[in-house]
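Tokens in:
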């Protein structure tokens, strides 16, 4: 496919503007050379070329509006379009972020209500909506943990992280200057309590725990985990990326979590992928509330205002007030489902994952064979050992069947991992079609392994050097 620059012809236009009726000004004189680069290429195309170019590009991509997207840990549920309508309302989309409080009362009310809703759903005392993604929420949370112990005059240098954790957990700890120590999982995929007990000391600031964890398994010993951490004065941090597994069923605050980050773009139905925008609110128990980022929203009578008057706060973590439009979409989603709808979403998400787990169990290794939550983790070890077909090959072959592959090679403790998260929004027919494809690929792997290793056949490009693409992206274009 040609670049839009290659389709460019001098003078061609997508829109005709009327002739200017004001005297021309040389912008280079007015604002200086640095704003107007003479060497900056601009494509010149007609409207039809423009529409076709981007429509064709979009058809080379894959999204949840095109097909099943069981990318584990990412919760690629369908995003109802009414959420977009809500976020596009002129009062939300058109308000300038620097507008005064008196012009922003409705927006402030929405944010305030959202904080109260999230506090209620997750059993926390307070929430901030500032962080722009899950990882950013983690960073915010760990900054608060650090400040909490500093203000108490306690020197704690360690954060414990289970070996199943998402890579952003140790990264967040390290960014704040903590040493991160790996906590082992036990044979049934939960926290090894003896190992935790041996690691807990007055030097441990927090345990960062994902529950259900990235194996899709609920932490059976969660109360004991909380008691062990709290017993040594530590804090229990919850990575809430997997919240789709327990909405309306259990509240992290009630389980003993002191602080938790959410991923609104995952759990609460906002289009995501490709880098954003997202929203990673952080909820805290009462004793951590003073450390939340500022400004915070205050409500006096019926009037909302911003307040910076929290001397213990970690300060600002984001310009303005976070990704407001994402918050509006998540709010619309929560309000349209209601308490019963959220609970039902979780029940269906868990049912769907278990359905897939049971259907695929005879065909792929299942290292942790117990009832799962919203996702299940298989291993491609059998296919790798018997046929030399690896999880990458299975993932690539799935594309030919019209499905987005599951998350692969994560969590790290499962060899040849395939982490499948169907979400609640998929029908039984879709789940069956996906399972049929997986079973067909398992058969191909044993009968014609080379076919699977050469896949995909249906895409514009097949196997790319993903490392090179990430490390040395080539985004240059030279005019011929
Ligand atoms: C997605 C995810 C994160 C990071 O969230 P982002 O919004 O992508 O920054 C952290 N932990 C887990 C378990 C996740 O699945």
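Residues out:
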């Amino acid at each position: 496919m040609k670049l839009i620059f290659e389709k460019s012809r001098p003078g061609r236009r997508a829109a005709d503007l009327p002739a200017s009726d004001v005297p021309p000004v040389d912008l280079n004189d007015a604002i200086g050379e640095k704003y107007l680069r003479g060497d900056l290429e601009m494509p010149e195309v007609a409207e039809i070329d423009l529409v076709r170019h981007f429509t064709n590009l979009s058809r080379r991509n894959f999204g949840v509006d095109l097909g099943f997207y069981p990318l584990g840990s990412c919760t690629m549920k369908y995003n109802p379009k009414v959420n977009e309508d809500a976020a596009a309302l002129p009062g939300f989309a058109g308000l300038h972020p620097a507008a005064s409080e008196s012009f922003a009362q409705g927006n402030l009310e929405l944010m305030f209500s959202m904080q109260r809703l999230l506090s209620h759903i997750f059993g926390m005392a307070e929430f901030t909506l500032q962080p722009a993604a899950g990882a950013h929420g983690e960073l915010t949370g760990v900054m608060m943990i650090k400040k909490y112990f500093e203000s108490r005059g306690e020197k704690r240098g360690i954060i414990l992280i289970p070996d199943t954790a998402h890579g952003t957990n140790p990264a967040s700890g390290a960014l704040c200057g903590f040493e991160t120590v790996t906590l082992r999982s036990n044979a049934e995929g939960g926290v090894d309590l003896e190992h935790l007990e041996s690691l807990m000391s007055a030097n441990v600031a927090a345990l960062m725990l994902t529950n259900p964890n990235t194996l899709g398994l609920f932490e059976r010993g969660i109360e004991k985990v909380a008691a062990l951490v709290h017993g040594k004065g530590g804090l229990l941090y919850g990575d809430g990326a997997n919240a789709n597994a327990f909405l309306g069923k259990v509240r992290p605050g009630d389980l003993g979590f002191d602080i938790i980050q959410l991923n609104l773009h995952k759990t609460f139905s906002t289009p995501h992928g490709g880098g954003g925008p997202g929203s990673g609110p952080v909820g805290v128990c009462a004793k951590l509330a003073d450390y939340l980022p500022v400004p915070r929203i205050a409500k006096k009578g019926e009037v909302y205002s911003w307040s910076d008057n929290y001397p213990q706060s970690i300060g600002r973590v984001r310009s303005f007030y976070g990704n407001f439009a994402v918050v509006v979409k998540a709010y619309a989603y929560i309000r349209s489902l209601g308490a019963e709808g959220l609970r039902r979403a979780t029940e269906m998400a868990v049912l769907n994952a278990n359905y897939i787990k049971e259907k695929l169990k005879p065909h792929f290794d299942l290292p942790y064979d117990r009832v799962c939550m919203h996702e299940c983790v298989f291993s491609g070890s059998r296919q790798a050992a018997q046929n030399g077909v690896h999880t990458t090959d299975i993932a690539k072959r799935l594309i030919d069947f019209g499905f987005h592959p599951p998350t692969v090679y994560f969590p790290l403790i499962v060899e040849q991992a395939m982490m499948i998260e169907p979400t609640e929004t998929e029908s039984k027919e879709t789940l069956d079609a996906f399972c049929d494809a997986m079973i067909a690929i398992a058969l191909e792997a044993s009968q014609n392994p080379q076919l699977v290793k050469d896949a995909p056949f249906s895409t514009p490009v097949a196997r790319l050097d993903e490392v090179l693409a990430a490390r040395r992206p080539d985004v240059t274009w030279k005019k011929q």
